[in-house]
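Worked Example 4.2. Consider the chain below.
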Amino acid sequence: MPPTAPQIEAARQHLEGLGWLLKSGLSYGAHFSLYRPAVEAVEGGDADGAKKPPAAAEAHQHAPFVVLVHAAAEPPGWAALLGAERVAAGASKRLMLAAVSEGSGEGGGGLLVETRIVVFKRGLE
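Applying the procedure from the previous section yields the following structure tokens:
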């Protein structure tokens, strides 16, 4: 069963809160592509101390991760997981799963998000 809109929004807010820049992951079969913020957007600022927005070319040169959101109670099956990882690997990205569950977050309610990076070992060593 696909995640609900509130679950996807909770994952988006969680990842943005960690400092990631998010774009659509649709072309990779995922919910989001994660981009590292430009260094100046984090460290720099104007006279008022406000963070400067990064230039478009600096902000997202390469997305190291694509994110697949799912309900924590309904993880993706192995075939879906393997397919998503193969697409991500083919695009030189790593797959991150965002499991969203009902919980007692800040304020006593809401949705909790837990992320995991999926790594499949290929070949024999």
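The CA atoms of residues 46 and 54 lie 13 Å apart. The domain at 5-118 is CATH 3.40.1350.10 (Trna Endonuclease; Chain: A, domain 1). Compare this with Example 4.1 before moving on.
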